[in-house]
Amino acid sequence: MIGPKGVEVSIGIFSRDMTRIEYRHIRGVNLRQSFFNRLMSIGQILVSTSGMDAELVISDIKKPVYFTDIIKSRLKNLS
């Protein structure tokens, strides 16, 4: 979920793992799509943060270009 204060990802059906990152901690946003993914309008959004070695990966998201643009726009508004 892309909210007004940050990005939140929940994984799992029976047990749930939730990760929330505020926009002020995000250092980069990248989009990964194969040719087939572009045809299907799905992809991965990779969110890199300050203070974390790993990236947050949002997999198999529909309309990834749209959501990547939203995150980048909100990051630009922080500056």
| Principal-axes shape call | globular
Beta fraction of the residues? 35-45%
Tally of separate domains: 1
Order the strands across the largest sheet as they lie in space. 3-4-5
User: Unreliable stretches, pLDDT < 50, 5 or more residues?
Assistant: none
Strand and helix map with partners:
Layout: E1 6-11, E2 17-22, E3 26-32, H1 35-40, E4 42-49, E5 56-62, H2 64-78
Antiparallel strand pairs: 1-2, 3-4, 4-5
Could you explain how this protein is built, in words?
The protein is of the alpha+beta class and 79 residues long. It has one domain (6-78). The protein is built from two helices and five strands. It has helices spanning 35-40, 64-78; strands at 6-11, 17-22, 26-32, 42-49, 56-62. The strands form two sheets. Strands 3-4-5 form a three-stranded antiparallel β-sheet. Strand 1 and strand 2 (17-22) form a beta hairpin. The longest helix has 15 residues, at 64-78. It is globular. It starts with 5 loop residues before the first strand and ends with a helix. The model has no long low-confidence stretch (mean pLDDT 90).
Question: Which features would summarize this protein structure in a list?
Answer:
2 helices; 79 residues; alpha+beta; two-stranded antiparallel sheet; single chain; globular; three-stranded antiparallel beta sheet
